Amino acid sequence: MKKLSTAVSALLVATSTLAADAVPDTRSRALEVFKPLPSTTPAVAHNPITPDKIALGKALFFDPRVSASGVFSCNSCHNLATGGDDNLETSIGHGWQKGPRNAPTALNAVFNIAQFWDGRAEDLKAQAKGPVQAGVEMANTPENVVATLKSMPAYVDWFKASFPDEADPVTFDNFAKAIEAFEATLITPAPFDAWLNGDDEALTAEQKQGLALFMDKGCSSCHTGINVGGQGYFPFGVVEKPGADVLPQNDKGRFAVTNTADDSYVFRAAPLRNVALTAPYFHSGKVWELKQAVAIMGTAQLGQELNDGEVTLIVAFLNSLTGRMPEVTVPVLPPETDATPRPNG
Ligand code: HEM
Ligand code: HEM
Q1: Of all protein residues, whose CA lies closest to atom 4 belonging to ligand 1?
Q2: Most CB atoms closer than 10 Å: which of 156, 221, 285, 289?
Q3: For 280-295, what is each residue's pLDDT tens digit?
Q4: Is the C-beta atom of 295 inside 6 A of ligand 2?
Q5: How far is the CA of 270 from the centre of ligand 2 (A)?
Q6: Among 89, 137, 180, 183, which one carries the catalytic annotation?
Q7: According to the model, what pLDDT value does residue 19 have?
Q8: So where are the chain's domains?
Q9: 51-183 belongs to which homologous superfamily?
């Protein structure tokens, strides 16, 4: 009996050693494809980030007066209180128009290879000029944005402090750069980062199994890098095209950017940080349940029917990507003056 229990405990020790070994093994595999968030604000190209610029960018992000109607701010559709998006199928903008695509989160967007579902803006400063001018979003013009900002003395001072070497700092380019600087601070460290950084307890057993499945099944061949996605372009429906209810035929994705037939229905692999907060899913916003979105990815991208247990484990892993939200104090905006252009439309 003693011998048997010694044998059993030897076996247990051996198994637990194996389990302990297995932890760094999963981690080193994970570190080959993913990266933890940096602990500080990342640098961005051609736009040195300073505290003044971040504060100005925050004011602009929350200011509805940069839209023609005076109704929509960036935060209307990228609500920092609800995961950095609007939780609508597709966004509602100027004149109550419904836009063509679901709003992705602005959180951690600085780590995407390029911006938008089709990657048509190379970085956040290029991106920020888009919504202001989009007819279905803010429907404004660069000239009117600059006139609006110049009409408020506090904004002029803030632009001077943010771009001290420039004679005429209130420009549309600098508007976009300040917003980029603020967005670079919107990063959300998650349990997954703690685990990648060596904290074994940061993920539950279920989440670790889900992560292993995510890698074994091949999800991580497209959803890679810091944002667990946002790094490359792939056809939506590599193996099997989802129905037009999920993949509407009129949105051909990157085809509109490159005009290359091969890019029909090609989209950026969605960044998956905070995905549990950003329903509904896909560029069409047609899928409300994360489990269903994962199952669709299984059939469309991998040609595999994932069973309910597998989907549940993968979703458990995806939940570990929900991070600590940045603490953002709502800014007090400068009051408009007699010179401020009136809302229009
Ligand atoms: C995309 C920021 C205003 C709706 C994006 C992205 C960013 C962003 C960073 C790309 C995220 C990614 O690719 O993962 C901003 C800023 C705004 C602003 C800084 C203010 C200047 C708005 C407004 C709306 C809106 C007012 C809604 C009316 C959308 C939609 C997309 C998007 C639908 C996806 C469009 C596509 O992929 O074609 N925004 N946004 N945004 N935003 Fe905004
Ligand atoms: C979108 C998860 C495999 C490419 C998504 C979304 C989720 C997801 C949850 C929606 C995110 C959102 O709307 O915010 C998964 C899982 C996978 C997997 C769990 C493995 C079972 C793949 C593979 C590829 C891929 C292998 C590339 C071949 C894409 C693309 C999108 C996307 C292009 C954007 C689709 C769109 O235009 O709406 N993925 N994915 N995924 N994924 Fe995957």
Answers
A1: 103
A2: 285
A3: 999 999 999 999 999 9
A4: no
A5: 6
A6: 137
A7: 53
A8: 51-183, 189-319
A9: Cytochrome c-like domain (1.10.760.10)
